[in-house]
Amino acid sequence: MLLYRDPLFHLHRQAPGHPERPERLEAIDRMLADAPLACELRPGECRDATFDEIARVHSREYIRMVAASGGVPHTQFDGDTSANGHSYAAACRAAGSAIAAVDAVLEGPDRRAFVLSRPPGHHAEATHAAGFCFFNTAAIAAEHALASGLSRVCILDWDVHHGNGSMHSFYDRNDVLYASVHEYPHYPGTGRLGDIGRGSGEGYTVTAPLPAGCGDAEYLHVMTQLIYPIARAFAPELVLVSAGYDGHRRDPLASMRLSSQVYGLFTTLDCMFADTCTDGRLVYLLEGGYDTDALAEGVRESMTVLCGGRAAEVPDTSPHAEVVSLTDRLLEQYQPYWPAAEAFSLT
Ligand SMILES: [Zn+2]
Question: Is 342 helix (H, G, I), strand (E, B) or coil?
Fold first, then answer.
Protein backbone atom coordinates (compact mmCIF):
# COMPACT_ATOMS: atom_id res chain seq x y z
CA MET A 1 0.00 0.00 0.00
CA LEU A 2 1.14 3.51 -0.80
CA LEU A 3 0.98 6.02 2.03
CA TYR A 4 1.00 9.77 1.35
CA ARG A 5 2.25 11.97 4.20
CA ASP A 6 3.81 15.41 4.11
CA PRO A 7 5.09 17.87 6.76
CA LEU A 8 2.92 20.59 5.18
CA PHE A 9 -0.22 18.78 6.34
CA HIS A 10 0.90 19.49 9.92
CA LEU A 11 1.51 23.20 9.41
CA HIS A 12 -2.06 24.19 8.55
CA ARG A 13 -3.75 25.30 11.75
CA GLN A 14 -7.09 26.97 12.44
CA ALA A 15 -8.06 29.08 15.43
CA PRO A 16 -6.78 27.85 18.85
CA GLY A 17 -8.94 25.02 20.23
CA HIS A 18 -10.31 24.08 16.81
CA PRO A 19 -11.03 20.34 16.54
CA GLU A 20 -9.47 20.00 13.07
CA ARG A 21 -5.88 20.29 14.27
CA PRO A 22 -2.43 18.89 13.53
CA GLU A 23 -2.66 16.65 16.61
CA ARG A 24 -4.96 14.43 14.54
CA LEU A 25 -2.09 13.47 12.24
CA GLU A 26 0.34 13.30 15.14
CA ALA A 27 -1.87 10.65 16.78
CA ILE A 28 -1.81 8.60 13.58
CA ASP A 29 1.97 8.99 13.26
CA ARG A 30 2.40 7.90 16.87
CA MET A 31 0.20 4.88 16.32
CA LEU A 32 2.24 3.82 13.29
CA ALA A 33 5.55 4.41 15.11
CA ASP A 34 4.54 2.64 18.35
CA ALA A 35 3.15 -0.48 16.72
CA PRO A 36 4.17 -0.74 13.08
CA LEU A 37 1.80 -2.57 10.79
CA ALA A 38 2.88 -5.99 9.56
CA CYS A 39 3.22 -4.87 5.99
CA GLU A 40 5.24 -2.59 3.83
CA LEU A 41 3.92 0.99 3.74
CA ARG A 42 5.58 2.46 0.71
CA PRO A 43 5.79 6.25 0.78
CA GLY A 44 3.90 7.89 -2.06
CA GLU A 45 5.31 11.03 -3.59
CA CYS A 46 3.24 14.06 -2.56
CA ARG A 47 2.94 16.98 -4.93
CA ASP A 48 0.97 20.20 -5.29
CA ALA A 49 -2.14 20.37 -7.45
CA THR A 50 -1.81 22.94 -10.20
CA PHE A 51 -4.15 25.90 -10.51
CA ASP A 52 -5.83 24.27 -13.54
CA GLU A 53 -6.31 20.95 -11.74
CA ILE A 54 -8.06 22.72 -8.84
CA ALA A 55 -10.04 24.82 -11.34
CA ARG A 56 -11.76 21.67 -12.63
CA VAL A 57 -13.83 21.91 -9.42
CA HIS A 58 -13.43 25.46 -8.06
CA SER A 59 -13.92 28.88 -9.61
CA ARG A 60 -10.74 30.75 -10.50
CA GLU A 61 -11.82 33.69 -8.39
CA TYR A 62 -12.25 31.48 -5.32
CA ILE A 63 -8.85 29.78 -5.82
CA ARG A 64 -7.22 33.21 -5.94
CA MET A 65 -9.02 34.16 -2.75
CA VAL A 66 -7.62 31.10 -0.93
CA ALA A 67 -4.18 31.74 -2.46
CA ALA A 68 -4.26 35.25 -1.01
CA SER A 69 -4.33 33.71 2.49
CA GLY A 70 -0.86 32.25 1.90
CA GLY A 71 1.67 33.81 4.27
CA VAL A 72 -1.05 35.70 6.16
CA PRO A 73 -1.31 34.67 9.85
CA HIS A 74 -5.11 34.43 9.96
CA THR A 75 -7.88 34.60 7.35
CA GLN A 76 -11.46 33.73 8.30
CA PHE A 77 -13.42 31.98 5.51
CA ASP A 78 -16.62 30.98 7.27
CA GLY A 79 -17.81 30.56 10.83
CA ASP A 80 -15.74 27.44 11.44
CA THR A 81 -13.11 27.54 8.69
CA SER A 82 -10.02 29.70 8.87
CA ALA A 83 -6.55 29.66 7.35
CA ASN A 84 -3.10 30.38 8.64
CA GLY A 85 -0.17 31.20 6.39
CA HIS A 86 0.31 27.53 5.42
CA SER A 87 -3.30 26.50 4.76
CA TYR A 88 -3.35 27.33 1.06
CA ALA A 89 -0.13 25.39 0.47
CA ALA A 90 -1.42 22.44 2.51
CA ALA A 91 -4.74 22.38 0.61
CA CYS A 92 -2.89 22.43 -2.73
CA ARG A 93 -0.66 19.59 -1.57
CA ALA A 94 -3.61 17.57 -0.25
CA ALA A 95 -5.35 17.81 -3.63
CA GLY A 96 -2.12 17.17 -5.54
CA SER A 97 -1.27 14.15 -3.43
CA ALA A 98 -4.71 12.71 -4.10
CA ILE A 99 -4.04 13.19 -7.80
CA ALA A 100 -0.62 11.54 -7.41
CA ALA A 101 -2.28 8.61 -5.63
CA VAL A 102 -4.81 8.25 -8.45
CA ASP A 103 -2.00 8.21 -11.02
CA ALA A 104 -0.04 5.68 -8.98
CA VAL A 105 -2.88 3.17 -8.59
CA LEU A 106 -3.88 3.55 -12.24
CA GLU A 107 -0.32 2.86 -13.28
CA GLY A 108 0.42 0.09 -10.72
CA PRO A 109 1.90 -2.04 -9.38
CA ASP A 110 0.37 -0.69 -6.14
CA ARG A 111 -3.42 -0.81 -6.29
CA ARG A 112 -4.22 0.79 -2.95
CA ALA A 113 -3.23 4.15 -1.50
CA PHE A 114 -4.07 6.19 1.59
CA VAL A 115 -3.58 9.96 1.56
CA LEU A 116 -3.22 11.18 5.15
CA SER A 117 -3.77 14.83 4.42
CA ARG A 118 -5.13 17.95 6.07
CA PRO A 119 -7.18 20.06 5.52
CA PRO A 120 -10.08 17.75 4.67
CA GLY A 121 -12.07 18.44 1.50
CA HIS A 122 -15.60 17.10 1.13
CA HIS A 123 -17.47 20.19 2.37
CA ALA A 124 -15.65 22.61 0.04
CA GLU A 125 -17.94 24.03 -2.63
CA ALA A 126 -17.01 25.39 -6.07
CA THR A 127 -16.99 28.97 -4.83
CA HIS A 128 -16.49 28.83 -1.09
CA ALA A 129 -14.80 27.13 1.84
CA ALA A 130 -16.97 25.27 4.34
CA GLY A 131 -16.74 22.88 7.29
CA PHE A 132 -12.93 23.05 7.76
CA CYS A 133 -12.42 22.44 3.99
CA PHE A 134 -10.86 24.68 1.32
CA PHE A 135 -10.45 22.56 -1.81
CA ASN A 136 -12.50 19.46 -2.50
CA THR A 137 -9.76 16.86 -2.66
CA ALA A 138 -12.03 13.94 -3.60
CA ALA A 139 -13.78 15.87 -6.38
CA ILE A 140 -10.47 17.15 -7.76
CA ALA A 141 -9.08 13.59 -7.74
CA ALA A 142 -12.20 12.29 -9.51
CA GLU A 143 -11.96 15.00 -12.17
CA HIS A 144 -8.30 14.15 -12.67
CA ALA A 145 -9.15 10.46 -13.17
CA LEU A 146 -11.76 11.40 -15.78
CA ALA A 147 -9.31 13.76 -17.51
CA SER A 148 -6.86 10.84 -17.60
CA GLY A 149 -9.29 8.81 -19.68
CA LEU A 150 -11.53 6.99 -17.21
CA SER A 151 -15.28 7.03 -17.85
CA ARG A 152 -16.70 6.19 -14.42
CA VAL A 153 -15.43 7.04 -10.94
CA CYS A 154 -17.13 6.27 -7.64
CA ILE A 155 -16.71 8.39 -4.51
CA LEU A 156 -17.78 6.53 -1.35
CA ASP A 157 -18.13 8.78 1.67
CA TRP A 158 -18.62 7.27 5.13
CA ASP A 159 -17.53 10.37 7.06
CA VAL A 160 -20.31 11.10 9.57
CA HIS A 161 -21.08 14.38 7.79
CA HIS A 162 -22.60 14.60 4.35
CA GLY A 163 -20.13 15.72 1.67
CA ASN A 164 -22.18 18.60 0.29
CA GLY A 165 -19.33 19.86 -1.90
CA SER A 166 -18.66 16.45 -3.41
CA MET A 167 -22.35 15.92 -4.10
CA HIS A 168 -22.80 19.33 -5.72
CA SER A 169 -19.71 18.85 -7.90
CA PHE A 170 -21.37 15.97 -9.73
CA TYR A 171 -25.09 16.38 -9.02
CA ASP A 172 -26.17 16.53 -12.67
CA ARG A 173 -23.60 14.10 -14.06
CA ASN A 174 -23.48 10.35 -14.59
CA ASP A 175 -19.71 9.87 -14.82
CA VAL A 176 -19.18 10.17 -11.04
CA LEU A 177 -21.36 8.28 -8.61
CA TYR A 178 -21.32 9.94 -5.19
CA ALA A 179 -22.57 7.71 -2.36
CA SER A 180 -22.72 8.89 1.23
CA VAL A 181 -23.88 7.42 4.52
CA HIS A 182 -24.11 10.13 7.17
CA GLU A 183 -25.90 11.45 10.23
CA TYR A 184 -29.02 13.45 9.41
CA PRO A 185 -30.20 15.95 10.45
CA HIS A 186 -26.74 17.27 11.19
CA TYR A 187 -24.12 19.56 9.67
CA PRO A 188 -24.13 20.52 6.76
CA GLY A 189 -27.86 19.81 6.30
CA THR A 190 -27.60 18.34 2.81
CA GLY A 191 -27.93 14.65 1.91
CA ARG A 192 -31.65 14.41 2.53
CA LEU A 193 -33.93 11.63 1.45
CA GLY A 194 -34.72 12.50 -2.15
CA ASP A 195 -31.28 13.97 -2.93
CA ILE A 196 -30.70 11.60 -5.84
CA GLY A 197 -29.15 13.83 -8.52
CA ARG A 198 -30.81 15.64 -11.39
CA GLY A 199 -30.95 15.57 -15.18
CA SER A 200 -28.55 12.99 -16.53
CA GLY A 201 -27.21 12.65 -12.98
CA GLU A 202 -30.53 11.41 -11.60
CA GLY A 203 -29.87 8.24 -9.60
CA TYR A 204 -26.10 8.90 -9.46
CA THR A 205 -26.22 10.60 -6.06
CA VAL A 206 -26.81 7.94 -3.43
CA THR A 207 -27.84 9.32 -0.09
CA ALA A 208 -28.31 7.39 3.15
CA PRO A 209 -29.32 9.87 5.88
CA LEU A 210 -29.16 7.95 9.16
CA PRO A 211 -30.66 9.15 12.44
CA ALA A 212 -28.34 9.99 15.36
CA GLY A 213 -27.34 7.06 17.54
CA CYS A 214 -26.63 4.52 14.81
CA GLY A 215 -23.90 1.96 15.43
CA ASP A 216 -22.01 -0.76 13.59
CA ALA A 217 -25.07 -2.87 12.73
CA GLU A 218 -27.03 0.04 11.22
CA TYR A 219 -24.11 1.24 9.11
CA LEU A 220 -23.27 -2.26 7.89
CA HIS A 221 -26.92 -2.85 7.00
CA VAL A 222 -27.36 0.26 4.88
CA MET A 223 -23.94 -0.13 3.28
CA THR A 224 -24.34 -3.78 2.27
CA GLN A 225 -28.00 -3.47 1.24
CA LEU A 226 -27.94 -0.10 -0.51
CA ILE A 227 -24.56 1.65 -0.97
CA TYR A 228 -22.34 -1.13 -2.33
CA PRO A 229 -25.03 -2.82 -4.45
CA ILE A 230 -25.71 0.43 -6.33
CA ALA A 231 -22.03 1.32 -6.50
CA ARG A 232 -21.26 -2.12 -7.94
CA ALA A 233 -24.04 -1.81 -10.53
CA PHE A 234 -22.43 1.49 -11.58
CA ALA A 235 -19.25 -0.49 -12.38
CA PRO A 236 -16.67 2.23 -11.74
CA GLU A 237 -13.10 2.06 -12.97
CA LEU A 238 -11.72 3.70 -9.82
CA VAL A 239 -12.96 3.95 -6.23
CA LEU A 240 -12.18 6.99 -4.08
CA VAL A 241 -13.12 6.85 -0.41
CA SER A 242 -13.77 9.97 1.65
CA ALA A 243 -12.60 8.27 4.82
CA GLY A 244 -13.84 10.16 7.86
CA TYR A 245 -13.62 8.58 11.29
CA ASP A 246 -16.03 10.94 13.07
CA GLY A 247 -18.87 8.41 13.22
CA HIS A 248 -16.91 6.89 16.12
CA ARG A 249 -18.77 6.72 19.44
CA ARG A 250 -16.14 8.92 21.12
CA ASP A 251 -16.15 11.63 18.45
CA PRO A 252 -17.05 15.05 19.92
CA LEU A 253 -18.67 16.45 16.75
CA ALA A 254 -21.35 13.85 16.03
CA SER A 255 -23.73 11.44 17.73
CA MET A 256 -23.10 8.08 16.09
CA ARG A 257 -21.90 5.00 17.94
CA LEU A 258 -19.41 3.23 15.69
CA SER A 259 -16.66 1.07 17.18
CA SER A 260 -13.02 1.39 16.12
CA GLN A 261 -13.11 -2.18 14.82
CA VAL A 262 -15.94 -1.57 12.34
CA TYR A 263 -13.68 0.62 10.24
CA GLY A 264 -11.77 -2.54 9.34
CA LEU A 265 -15.04 -4.01 8.06
CA PHE A 266 -15.82 -0.85 6.08
CA THR A 267 -12.39 -1.19 4.47
CA THR A 268 -12.95 -4.89 3.83
CA LEU A 269 -16.14 -3.97 1.97
CA ASP A 270 -14.38 -1.16 0.08
CA CYS A 271 -11.64 -3.60 -0.99
CA MET A 272 -14.17 -6.30 -2.03
CA PHE A 273 -16.05 -3.71 -4.04
CA ALA A 274 -12.87 -2.40 -5.69
CA ASP A 275 -11.67 -5.95 -6.41
CA THR A 276 -14.89 -6.76 -8.28
CA CYS A 277 -15.10 -3.52 -10.28
CA THR A 278 -11.78 -1.74 -10.59
CA ASP A 279 -9.20 -4.51 -10.43
CA GLY A 280 -8.63 -3.35 -6.86
CA ARG A 281 -7.84 0.28 -7.59
CA LEU A 282 -8.74 2.13 -4.41
CA VAL A 283 -7.64 5.50 -3.00
CA TYR A 284 -8.44 6.53 0.58
CA LEU A 285 -8.56 10.25 1.37
CA LEU A 286 -8.66 11.32 5.02
CA GLU A 287 -11.62 13.52 5.92
CA GLY A 288 -12.84 13.94 9.53
CA GLY A 289 -12.27 12.26 12.89
CA TYR A 290 -11.87 14.55 15.90
CA ASP A 291 -11.16 12.31 18.87
CA THR A 292 -7.49 11.87 18.09
CA ASP A 293 -7.13 8.41 19.69
CA ALA A 294 -10.33 7.11 18.07
CA LEU A 295 -9.12 8.48 14.74
CA ALA A 296 -5.78 6.68 15.06
CA GLU A 297 -7.54 3.44 16.06
CA GLY A 298 -9.91 3.63 13.09
CA VAL A 299 -7.14 4.47 10.63
CA ARG A 300 -5.16 1.52 11.97
CA GLU A 301 -8.09 -0.85 11.34
CA SER A 302 -8.42 0.49 7.78
CA MET A 303 -4.70 0.29 7.07
CA THR A 304 -4.47 -3.25 8.40
CA VAL A 305 -7.03 -4.33 5.82
CA LEU A 306 -5.59 -2.18 3.01
CA CYS A 307 -2.32 -4.02 3.70
CA GLY A 308 -3.99 -7.39 3.19
CA GLY A 309 -4.73 -8.21 6.85
CA ARG A 310 -8.07 -9.32 8.25
CA ALA A 311 -10.57 -7.01 9.91
CA ALA A 312 -11.26 -7.51 13.60
CA GLU A 313 -14.62 -9.05 14.49
CA VAL A 314 -17.50 -6.88 15.61
CA PRO A 315 -20.47 -8.28 17.54
CA ASP A 316 -23.17 -9.50 15.18
CA THR A 317 -26.25 -7.57 16.24
CA SER A 318 -29.45 -6.74 14.40
CA PRO A 319 -29.87 -3.26 12.96
CA HIS A 320 -32.51 -1.02 14.50
CA ALA A 321 -35.94 -1.41 12.85
CA GLU A 322 -36.04 2.29 11.96
CA VAL A 323 -32.90 1.91 9.84
CA VAL A 324 -34.15 -1.30 8.23
CA SER A 325 -37.32 0.46 7.08
CA LEU A 326 -35.35 3.55 5.98
CA THR A 327 -33.12 1.28 3.89
CA ASP A 328 -36.16 -0.38 2.32
CA ARG A 329 -37.53 3.04 1.46
CA LEU A 330 -34.23 4.06 -0.10
CA LEU A 331 -34.03 0.82 -2.09
CA GLU A 332 -37.46 1.57 -3.48
CA GLN A 333 -36.37 5.10 -4.37
CA TYR A 334 -33.31 3.91 -6.31
CA GLN A 335 -34.81 0.75 -7.83
CA PRO A 336 -35.86 2.43 -11.11
CA TYR A 337 -32.27 3.62 -11.65
CA TRP A 338 -30.46 0.50 -10.49
CA PRO A 339 -32.71 -2.50 -11.09
CA ALA A 340 -29.72 -4.86 -11.19
CA ALA A 341 -28.32 -3.88 -7.78
CA GLU A 342 -27.89 -6.94 -5.58
CA ALA A 343 -27.18 -7.11 -1.86
CA PHE A 344 -23.55 -7.30 -0.90
CA SER A 345 -22.33 -9.91 1.57
CA LEU A 346 -19.24 -9.87 3.75
CA THR A 347 -18.90 -13.65 3.46
ZN1 LIG B 1 -16.95 14.80 9.15
Answer: coil
